[in-house]
Amino acid sequence: xxxxxxxxxxxxxxxxxxxxxxxxxxxxxxxxxxxxxxxxxxxxxxxxxxxxxxxxxxxxxxxxxxxxxxxxxxxxxxxxxxxxxxxxxxxxxxxxxxxxxxxxxxxxxxxxxxxxxxxxxxxxxxxxxxxxxxxxxxxxxxxxxxxxxxxxxxxxxxxxxxxxxxxxxxxxxxxxxxxxxxxxxxxxxxxxxxxxxxxxxxxxxxxxxxxxxxxxxxxxxxxxxxxxxxxxxxxxxxxxxxxxxxxxxxxxxxxxxxxxxxxxxxxxxxxxxxxxxxxxxxxxxxxxxxxxxxxxxxxxxxxxxxxxxxxxxxxxxxxxxxxxxxxxxxxxxxxxxxxxxxxxxxxxxxxxxxxxxxxxxxxxxxxxxxxxxxxxxxxxxxxxxxxxxxxxxxxxxxxxxxxxxxxxxxxxxxxxxxxxxxxxxxxxxxxxxxxxxxxxxxxxxxxxxxxxxxxxxxxxxxxxxxxxxxxxxxxxxxxxxxxxxxxxxxxxxxxxxxxxxxxxxxxxxxxxxxxxxxxxxxxxxxxxxxxxxxx
Length: 535
Ligand code: ADP
Ligand code: MG
Prior knowledge:
The chain is built from 21 helices and 20 strands. The chain is α/β, with parallel strands linked by helices.
């Protein structure tokens, strides 16, 4: 958008109010330029893509020119089809919500002509019609063209494609030569230019090219995933990237809720943002995100619009965006202010074509990578830890600890062993028992994950939604009581009366033993190995 308000275009008070009611916040580029040009009285040829608001671009200045006290026909808009004529006249009526005494009428084939004739007799100032029916009324002298001040050819390319050229020429020839003539179209052809040379005087050309989108120079990666493996892939990316702030984009509100629920269940600090939230709730979520309480924001495109947040380390497109522009907006959330950022996109099956379109449109490269395996994550964690270690050594102030090491050495313990043991303590509790759920590169393993990993067992818990427990309560309790890392816990299916929790087979005994006599949310739990595997 070009951030031009309708006020700045000199639009009159009643139309401004109507435009606000219509929900337009600012003028589209074609509107900004066309309104300005048309007001100078010049003929205009306006070209811009479908959906860019061409109707109001000519509609607003056209309606401003109508003299409400003059009951004669002052403007004619030609449209290719009956649907478009109705659509344009509806948009005009909305624009006229606070302007009385201006009458607009659509006329098109298929509607009884008598009714149109009766309506025309009531003093219509603006007619929006298809060329055929307009000609019909001209022949019957039920449309008088002598007082026309402005003529508009809307969707001119389509009208010419439909063979209306002769009709258009006849109609325009009947209107006063001093009229102002406007032509709007999504494309410009030689035919349109020929027509304009005959009927437009020194027209101003307004051409809005599809905005060149500046794509931030950030690393863009995509993963070929299955719908069912998205959550696991998401967790792994977050684990390996270890971002301070990440935004996950989903295409629908429901998806946002689902992803937030699952991430929370897995122990991540995630919050969702979508259109159903009240302003107060939104503010709360944003505050938590800004002060770092929440590390992962899951949002829809609309909810994220206008959010002013810097310092986002990574953006993850949980779903491929429907629109190329969305992609650019989404990934633009990271890599701001010269910082490096990364964008990850999950791509399922045929969505690869959509991704190719995005690459073509944005002229960037999105490279494929394989989903990190658990050993990649382990390696990344080790590397992070060693980096931290080096920094601490560089910073010094270690005398106190050196003394402890010295006393150990005096007891004949080798420094190498001391260091190794410390590393073990620091690194093992997080990934000591890690089990790879699936490896995207290994067909067999992916398949077995999708069919529920054979390494996983289902546990039945005798508490459920009715006890006010949430997935994360299970993760917390199992991880806490049994000393196993929360992220090896698999899917958690909450039902009203009971809950199924997947845990790695080799930990089943530990979990059952660890949870013996334990309470979750004050409820004593009873656990059994579930009999049937859910598919
Ligand atoms: P075009 O003729 O260029 O294909 P339309 O005039 O039919 O586009 O407008 C497409 C849609 O955009 C309509 O629903 C219209 O109400 C809406 N629209 C037009 N101008 C604006 C604006 N400034 N802000 C938001 N929406 C707009
Ligand atoms: Mg249009």
